[in-house]
Structure prediction request, 387 residues.
Amino acid sequence: MALTAETVHAELEAANQEGDPAADALVSDLIDNREVDGVNGLFRTIGTLKPHMPMDELSGLPERLAQFLHDASEEPPGWGGADVEAAEGFFAHHHGVASMLQGTVGLIGTYLSPTGAFTLRSTGRLGGADGPGRRLSQSSRLFIGMGDKDALRNGTLAATVTKVRLVHASVRQLHKKSGQWDYARWGEPVSQKYVTGAICVFSVQILQAMKNLGVHVAKEDAQGFVAAWHYINHYLGTPEKWLIPKDVDLVDRIWSAERENEWRASEDCTAMTQQALKFHREQMVPPPFYEPFLAMVRAAFTDRYADMAGIPKSAVDLVAKPAAAMHDLFSSTVGGLGGGAKKVVGVNPYDEILGVASKAFNQVELYALTHDKDDQPQMHQDLHDDR
Prediction:
């Protein structure tokens, strides 16, 4: 039985004490035997994880890994064709904007959990100066891949998510050995509570961001988006009792209540947010376009959470500017990046910047997936191992 509004707080506090026993046992053994590099190399050969995947299709892998992947290949309980069709409906209409917001609002949102921010900063390159690009590179495979044609049918999304599950396990195991983790204060590293909270950030928090930016998402599409994250939640190794439900209204209520307990300003959050914004400014958007982009991110978060994360106020107030003036700004600052924007008056003032930002961001995401070998999730052999 999945989470309900009545049981959520107590259930999530219990989830904060739980890791992922099957993944933890495998990864602990791999770390102890100095086999992580070899398994990271094998990640590149695992392209699909089909339901009920037979062992003979995994025969080229070490037996321990093959057995784990076989056991991990089961679909979520009650998953069916209607869920897949609903998810595909969302991505058919909103893939570009959702992917862009997941890579900006979503990633920064995970820093607003002090425990999550500390976890990321403690882990190699994910917390270093190159962290934002690294996180974007690895996350892009998920954000873009979940909307790819047949991703929820052919096992490619399940394979990607299962690799992330093993990365989470490596972080847990290394913190057990590090002596840096305060279990009494924070619970388990990358606990089931943390995983479920991140799922909420990347699902209903993104839907809230789209609403804040004036993007209309039909109810059936919103249901499909949450269903896709329910699927991901399952493949991350979360037991059924802690899975987010396939009910967008219920998940929205759960998250809106829990966010009051979970999101806090912290030095780790501010530092990582500034790293992310620096990456966006230097690698993603032309300098004159950065201020409108920053204004959009703040509007997506709302001022309360933007201030909490340390996102500075922009010199551009998008809402106060008529659409025609915004068109002139975009035309003069970003050239043809937006794909030939038209001068329109009386429409959502965010429409044009959403189109431009989505195209720019998705170009960066695709580049991150193809320009080097940094596109796959990678387990860690040691904390601060610069993976």
